[in-house]
């Protein structure tokens, strides 16, 4: 393999890993497939590229391709690559557990927040300016008739105790 080809493989490999880590699994698969096509698959580096490709396939919901590539890697010359492919194959072929809907938390799509962010802020500011109190916090005034304002005896006991301690310290000259 020439130095230029090796450089292209390394660039595609790094781009694929970076895309995977950003959650762009389809792009990761594309980059890693390009790197895998150019690299010598029987080298340790070629095996690493293919292991990453298996992981990207799984993340991109291409489970059949991931399992097929794992089975190919089971005959790789590198012991570490074979061992890693067996572990991945075990995970990929494991049965899916049934999960009840109440066990899961639905995460809303936050991709549209950036589009509506300016509108929301302007809407909140306009609503805040319309409030009669003049504050933007939007907090309602508290009805003091609902608040317990009775004296607490503990406060008086604590104050008397502190005064006794301070008085005794002054009397004894500490």
From TrEMBL:
Q: Write out the transmembrane intervals.
A: 154-173
Query: Which parts of the sequence are annotated with region: Disordered?
Result: 123-142
Q: Which keywords does this Swiss-Prot/TrEMBL entry list?
A: Membrane, Transmembrane, Transmembrane helix
Keyword Membrane belongs to the record: yes
Q: Where is the composition biased (Low complexity)?
A: 123-139
**Matches recorded under InterPro entries:** TPR-like_helical_dom_sf (IPR011990)
- Is Cytoplasm among the key words of this record? no
Q: What is this protein called?
A: Outer membrane protein assembly factor BamD
């Amino acid at each position: 393999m020439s130095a230029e080809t090796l450089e292209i493989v390394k660039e595609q490999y790094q781009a694929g890993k970076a895309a995977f880590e950003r959650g762009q699994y389809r792009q990761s698969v594309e980059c890693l497939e390009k790197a895998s096509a150019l690299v010598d698959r029987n080298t340790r580096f070629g095996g690493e590229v293919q292991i990453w490709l298996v992981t990207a396939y799984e993340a991109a919901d291409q489970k059949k391709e991931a399992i097929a590539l794992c089975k190919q890697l089971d005959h790789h010359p590198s012991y570490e690559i074979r061992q890693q492919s067996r572990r991945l194959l075990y995970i990929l072929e494991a049965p899916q557990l049934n999960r009840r809907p109440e066990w899961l938390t639905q995460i809303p799509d936050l991709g549209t927040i950036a589009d509506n962010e300016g509108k929301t802020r302007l809407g909140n500011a306009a609503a805040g300016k319309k409030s009669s109190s003049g504050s933007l916090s939007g907090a309602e005034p508290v009805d003091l008739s609902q608040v317990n304002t009775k004296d607490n005896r503990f406060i008086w006991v604590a104050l008397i105790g502190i005064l006794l301690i301070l008085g005794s310290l002054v009397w004894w000259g500490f």
